[in-house]
Structures are given as C-alpha cells and as structure tokens.
Amino acid sequence: MRVYLDNCCLNRPFDDQSLLTIRLETEAILDIQEKIKSGHLSFGWSYILDFENNANPF
Fold first, then answer.
1. Could you give the count of Cα atoms lying within 13 Å of 55 in the half-sphere of its Cβ?
2. If we measure between CA atoms, which residue out of 1, 10, 48, 16 comes closest to residue 29?
3. pLDDT, tens digit, for every residue of 16-45?
4. 46: which residues sit within 8 A by CB, 6+ positions away?
5. What is the pTM of this model?
6. Mean pLDDT throughout 2-28?
7. Half-sphere exposure of 9 (CA within 13 A, CB side)
8. b/e map of 23-58 (b: 16 or more CB within 10 Å)?
C-alpha cells in the first residue's frame, strides 16, 4: 500500500508533545514511518512536498 504524508504529518514529531492528541498523532506517524522503512508500506512523494519544504526556513 502506498501512503502519502503531507508536511504537517512529517513535522508532527517536532511539535509540542504535551497535548495528548498531538502525542497520539506523533506515535501514529512514527509507526507509519517505521512501516515505510521496513518495506511494509510505500511512501508516495509529490512535487508539492518539495515546494513546501523549500519554502520553509525551518
């Protein structure tokens, strides 16, 4: 299965983890990333991710 994660998802681990909802979303994203790294999922990329990343100074 191919998944597409936008920049909000990819940056969630860097957000303030004191809120339960943000922490749960972070855990979900990290689990998805592990599944991508292990080959159980495929990561879909788009030019818009490159555009957003290049526009973000952080």
1. 7
2. 10
3. 999 999 999 999 999 999 999 999 999 998
4. 4
5. 0.81
6. 94
7. 12
8. eebbeebeebbeeeeeeeeeeeeeeeeeeeeeeeee
